[in-house]
Amino acid sequence: MLMTLPPDDVLYEALVTRDDAYDGRAFVGVSSTGIFCRLTCPARKPKRENCHFYSDVADCIHAGFRPCKRCHPLTPAAQSDPSVTGLLAALDADPMRRWSESDLTRMGLDPSTVRRAFKRHFGMTFLDMARQRRLANGFTTLASGKVIDAQLDAGFDSPAAFRAAFAKLMGTAPGNFAKDALLRAAHIPTPLGDMIAVCDKRALHLLEFADRKALPNALARLRKMVKGEIGIGRTDVTEQVAHELAAFFNGDSAAFTVPLVMHGTPFTRQVWTALRDIPAGQTCSYGTLAQTIGAPTASRAVARANGANQIALIIPCHRVIGADGSLTGYGGGLWRKQKLIDLEKTYAQRTAQ
After folding, report:
1. Where do the catalytic residues lie (predicted)?
2. Does residue 210 belong to any structural domain of this protein?
3. What is the domain range of residue 32?
4. Annotated binding residue 284
């Protein structure tokens, strides 16, 4: 089903509490001011009778409302935050720079404010994001070089610090990865953050955002399921994954044809297959998905299967939302789920034309 807004009373409560679950997916037009805002706008809250709710900015503008100058509803949430945009540009310009809180202070920024802003928009701090960007460079070097080379390429002075950072990301130290393993882990950059893909020569086994806390456990489960080790490197399947992800984020295609190995029970594989049948640009609830697979009373089991998905984006668990239209949980972070849904609206609009 296409995403529909929850009742106005639910949205007004979200407006009053500045609930970011609907940020970018619902807007409020205030008849007493002629302004439309995000539900997270810091301005004083209007009376209930003056509020009209819309699912996109076009409807707000067509209704005669002007965009708010405080919450900037015409721009993505992160881009409307000046403490975020400048740092993202600086990180893109020099991805190998080792940032510290004193650097932020010298730029006239309050480190605690920056920390909260990045956690709110991206689910991680700016310093964590910068560290991951550097670590990704060392990850690539590991595929063909020595650990010490990877450490230097990642900009870590200390071998222990590099090993600790890598182990936090992958669940094991860089020297523990098998050189002759059939499964190979590789880093793939995307506009929504670095991803880790694990492939063999035939298929994709795992695709997760690198900052997901569950990644080390997911890799450990994969090792157990395949009864083998994981090495570092790329295969032809890895290159196909990278190519199809690039096409997806460029707005060229939402079709993924890379072969998959879905490690799960028959029920979870049934749920994951049903997820792939949800067209890009559409969403459904857990209850609707349960009905689709012929198990209408199994909404909770469907939700657990959704959360156990280890192939992000390609098995699109981000297309499942709460029955009331809220985003609900997403392992990659609600901010990513919102951006994926927004991106896929363009595919839905293209199909409707």
Report:
1. 37, 317
2. no
3. 8-67
4. no
Q: How many Cβ atoms are within 10 Å of 218's Cβ, its own excluded?
A: 20
| pLDDT tens digit sequence for 282-295 | 999 999 999 999 99
What are the backbone angles phi and psi of residue 195, rounded to the nearest 5°?
A: -125, 155
* Residue tagged active-site, from 37, 51, 199, 284: 37
Q: How many CB atoms lie within 10 A of CB 119?
A: 15
Q: Report the C-alpha gap between 88 and 82 in whole angstroms.
A: 10
Residues of the chain with pLDDT > 90, as a percent, come to: 37
152 lies in some domain: no
Catalytic residue check, 317:
yes
List pLDDT tens digits, range 17-29: 988 778 777 899 9
Alpha-helical runs (H) found in 183-317: 215-226, 236-249, 266-276, 286-292, 299-307
Which of 51, 199, 284, 317 is catalytic? The answer is 317
Distance in angstroms (rounded) separating the CA atoms of residues 185 and 142: 10
Q: Does residue 58 sit in helix, strand or coil?
A: helix
Q: CA neighbours within 13 Å on the CB side: how many for 271?
A: 31
Within 13 A of 235's CA, how many CA atoms are on the CB side? 19
Amino acid (one-letter) located at 316 = P
60 annotated binding-site participant: no
* Claim to verify: residue 97 and residue 27 sit in the same structural domain: no
Q: In the structure, what pLDDT confidence band is assigned to residue 1 with cuts at 50, 70 and 90?
A: very low
Confirm whether 199 is a catalytic residue. Answer: no
What residues contact 159, with CB distance under 8 A and at least 6 apart?
Answer: 147, 148, 151
Tokens of 151: 């450490």
Q: Is residue 225 part of a domain?
A: no
Q: Which two tokens stand for residue 297?
A: 């009373």
Partner residues linked to 260 by β-bridges: 204
Q: Domain check: are 118 and 55 in the same one?
A: no
Q: What is the CATH number of the domain that holds 332?
A: 1.10.10.10
Could you tell me the pLDDT band of residue 138, with boundaries at 50, 70 and 90? Answer: low
Confidence of residue 311 (pLDDT cuts 50, 70, 90): very high
13 in a structural domain: yes
- pTM for this predicted structure: 0.69
User: Do 277 and 348 share a structural domain?
Assistant: yes
